[in-house]
Amino acid sequence: MVTFERLLGRMHELADLAGVIGLATWDQETFLPAKATAARASQLATLQKLYHQRLVDPALGDWLLEHARAPGDRGAMVRVLNLERERALKVPERLVTELATATAHAIDAWKQARADDVFEPYRPHLTRVVALKREQADAIGHGGERYDALLDGYEPGMTVARLQPVLSALREQLVPMVRALEAVRRERVDPFAGQHFEVAAQERLTLELLTTMGFDLEAGRQDRSVHPFSGGTHPRDVRLTNRFDPSDPLVAVFIALHEGGHGLYCQGLDPALFRTPLARVPSMGLDESQSRLWENLVGRSQAFGGYLFARLQAAFPSQLGGVAPEAFAARVNRVERTALRGQADELTYNLHIVLRYELELGLLRGELEVADLPAAWAERSGALLGLTPPSPRLGVLQDIHWAEGALGYFPTYSLGNLYGASLFAAARRALPDLDAQLREGQLLPLRDWLRERVCAHGHRRDAEALVQAVTGRGLTDEDFIAYLRAKYSALYGSPL
Q: How far is CA 429 from CA 185, 350, 432, 474, in A?
């Protein structure tokens, strides 16, 4: 019988390979020279192939079987790695390398198409990616919905049959709320309009906010990318990126809070789990619960808003020195339809997710082709959001996810909103001084509470089981809807 230490050694190898892949993909979206796309595509294909080979090695299957009854963390490591291996066994090595190559080229094509605001040059690359993702879903297997196979890779156990009612219920509740608030909308002056905010000052402010959150900048860093993301190689090497708009510093501020939430999750993992299959989030919905919690439930809260605005005024005294806190609160919590998901308010955000989910479902079912995406996007945007994007950059080209091959990812943002609201409600119950702490910019008590109850556990438990243990309930929209009703009824002076 092989020792567990030898099995652990294979786990370490896989974690190290994944870390190098993470570094290569981070570099691809930050510092890679323009002419290096083909070289990086080949490198990523080779690295992904090596990872796949080590994962599907028959010897590893034997070792996992031998230790299937291991107790505690060891048993959880075996369970999680075995699930990943079983999924990988169904996907041929050729498809692994073809996907790595195709997505590397698609990302580069997406960047250029977005810069030029033209969809057509990107179309053949995305067509290739979608075809490969359909093949991948069929290889993994499904009960009739290809989407289930891909969704399971981000949210284990989730299916279209369960997800559809969740998103439909959100849509049915949120659309009337948006309409009700539009009916009582007051004209407000935007304190940020027509002003210039130096990018270097914005960058300093975002680093300050990350430090205030408790993000360790000696175990991570923030850089710039076209589409913000979080990644890295290890919980002690967490890479965040941001995007800076000289006309609006709130773009970077809320990106920092969002990506910082992801970063805190990674940095909060129990060191005993490092370089094992448990040193990861159990689902992307739970990961997004942290980013959405820090971005919205903290960042846009009345309690933290005063502190945040004071830091903005200190960074930009000539632009914001004479602005009233009430004007700032109204600006960061205004409800209005926008073409951009990343800048959508808390009520309309999930409608953006429904839009992408419906298009992805059509693509995977073969009911929609990539060439028809711009028109389909415009149609669904009109139906869900009441507006048509004025250009591809503000519509079908705004997100990098499809270029990365991440079909099935978008619903995890909505699941994250639901999990995040339930976790924040539990934090309020456990931390009676939370609002007072937020007003003073004291974010470490909340970070430590989330770290102890959520982040440190990694994948010891599945996502919904972990949330149930912390909050007393599983996946539900009740906390999220109650939060929105209370907050926006007060802000708009009209009951929802």
A: 33, 26, 6, 17
276-300 pLDDT tens trace: 999 999 999 999 999 999 999 999 9
Q: Is the pTM of this model over 0.85?
A: yes
**156 Rama sector, left if φ>0, alpha if ψ -120 to 50, beta otherwise:** beta
User: Residue 224: which H helix or E strand, with range?
Assistant: strand 220-224
* DSSP H/E element including 230: strand 230-234
Tokens of 215: 């993000």
Q: How many CB atoms lie within 10 A of CB 104?
A: 27
CA distance 432 to 52: 48
Q: Which residues contact 374 (CB under 8 A, 6 or more apart)?
A: 119, 392, 395, 396
Residue 55 near residue 85, CB atoms below 8 Å: yes
Q: How confident is the model over 71-85, as pLDDT tens digits? A: 999 999 999 999 999
All structural domains of the chain, each given as residue ranges with its CATH number in brackets, are 4-141 (no CATH), 161-492 (1.10.1370.30)
Instruction: Round the average pLDDT of the chain to a whole number and report it.
Output: 97
What residues are annotated to the active site? 259
When pLDDT is averaged across residues 412-423 and rounded to a whole number, the result is 98
